[in-house]
Amino acid sequence: ILSLKESILRDQFIMGSRTYSFTNKCAQTKKVYCTFIYRMKNTISIVFLILFFGLISSCSDDKPSDEPFALPPVGIKLDTLATGFVQPWGLEFVDDKVLITEKSGILYAWDGTSLTKINGLPTFVNLGQGGLLDVCKHPRFDSNRLIYFCGSTGTMSAASTTLYRAKLNGSELTAVEKLFQAIPQNNSGAHFGSRIVFDAEEKVYLSLGDRGSMNTAQQLENHNGCVIRLNDDGSVPSDNPFVNKAGAQPEIWTYGHRNVQGMAVHPVTGDIWTHEHGPRGGDEVNILEKGANYGWPLASFGIDYNGDTITTDTFVAGTVLPRYYWVPSIAPCGMTFYASDSIPQWKGNIFIGALAGKHVNRLVLNQNTVLEEERLLQNRARFRAVKQGPDGYLYILSEQPGMLMRFRPE
């Protein structure tokens, strides 16, 4: 029962093969359900469960909507390239193919016409928001064939985010190495992160969520709520900010995050930009600064899922203010800078997927300031990942329904 309550508070639960998601308009209903479930934990009945699932169906995000799908902007074509994915999460481009992860633990390569399953993956634990998550190639992939991938590993009672690398040879992974596993491991299904990027020095960055234990994001003795920085072989760089701090985890680059599921390198400045999920409101866009504290949960623009106040502060001295934030939440996921001339009016913009918001978010920048946003493909799907392809087009991965799509000039 407590697990059911927790899943509702995370805005989503799964019954059979169907995933139900709450809208903001259902917040009060959600609070009533959670209170009732908790009080009924010793006497809950089959009758109540039937009524409960029926009521939630009427409050679900994935019921048919009266709102039409938003069309692509004038002069831009949307192609649907592949369909039928089940909870896809990450994508990367190698050898004129697109690598796509599914949370259940499957890695595919799409060659433009068909999908090939990649063999040799380690076992991932499909726990709540965990499972096989992101995938990213090494900057020198063409010569070393190395790809990096991450997700939750361990057991259902003790899991955490883990980073691997391996060589990709055709449809096989070889020389699989575990480079890092976050501590602590626990049975929570919440907030695993995880995105992977490389900087110009070939340092690898991995984002980690707070695992639903918000106060631990301020504690350097664990990896919760941080972004870590490693050498490409998994060793710790000597210039990491907390290498010589007693009790701190040396991999930590930044901390005080809630759940970073978008990370991208600015194509001009080399700065690493991230976005993270707020609670109910307060999703953030940030630029990473060495050793910085991003404030969660000391400061937030959101409130708890049950309506309670987490903090009255939107800023606390010694922490970093977000560059942009959303209230209400859009549930951002995936992030890329568009740097191609193929669609010139989009050059220099940030693109972000939105899960609860069900759109692709376009942020227009002036240097490090967000000037405006546009919401593309509204109500079409839950968008999980977005990335510029080597052809200069913009690729998008969605769930509910699970599709690979592409923006290109018409």
Strand content: 35-45%
Apparent shape:
globular
Q: How would a crystallographer describe the biggest sheet?
A: 4 strands, antiparallel
In helices, the fraction of residues equals: under 10%
Parts with pLDDT < 50 across at least 5 consecutive residues: 1-66
Q: How would you sum up this structure, described in words?
A:
The protein is mainly beta. It has four helices and 26 strands. It is 9% helix and 38% strand.
Comma- or semicolon-separated keywords:
single chain; 410 residues; mainly beta; four-stranded antiparallel sheet; 9% helix
Give a topology summary.
Blueprint: H1 2-9, E1 12-15, E2 18-21, H2 27-39, H3 46-57, E3 76-83, E4 88-94, E5 97-102, E6 106-110, E7 115-117, E8 132-137, H4 141-144, E9 146-155, E10 158-169, E11 172-181, E12 196-198, E13 204-207, E14 227-230, E15 252-254, E16 260-265, E17 272-276, E18 283-287, E19 324-326, E20 332-337, E21 350-354, E22 359-366, E23 369-376, E24 382-388, E25 394-399, E26 403-409
Antiparallel strand pairs: 1-2, 3-26, 4-5, 5-6, 6-7, 8-9, 9-10, 10-11, 12-13, 13-14, 14-15, 16-17, 17-18, 18-19, 20-21, 21-22, 22-23, 24-25, 25-26
